[in-house]
Amino acid sequence: MKKLWNLAFGYFFAAMAGGVFYREFTKYFGFTGETALGYLHVHLLVLGTVLFLFLGLAATSTDLLEKKQFHTFVTVYNIILPLFTVVMLVRGILQVTGVSVSHGADAAISGIAGLTHIAIAGAWIFLFTILRKLK
Description:
There is one protein chain. The protein is mostly helical. It contains 4 helices and no strands. It has helices at residues 2-29, 37-61, 68-97, 103-132. The longest helix has 30 residues, at 68-97. The protein starts with a helix and ends with a helix.
């Protein structure tokens, strides 16, 4: 269970760092428009911190930690969510700096972003199936 609390804290720290980075990076470049960086903080806070806090609480009163599928979920999710946020970070940095990338690179970023969204949705569905089977 301590692992769940540590994951929640790690994502909280990353969310706070993402928020500070967004504020300072856009201020440095004098950027006032909308950017993917503005959503980085809340995505990490909700999809990371809040989720693992909830799962930690659920683990205190259920047999969640005994489920092999749950450990698979945690491993896969902790690969997907960082990749998800890295793509968001790259997209946001490109938006703020105004760096023009080739059509192929832009399509690759969009494609990876789409795949990570699908993977996150799949992971949540997998989690819901695990939670439904709890005692």
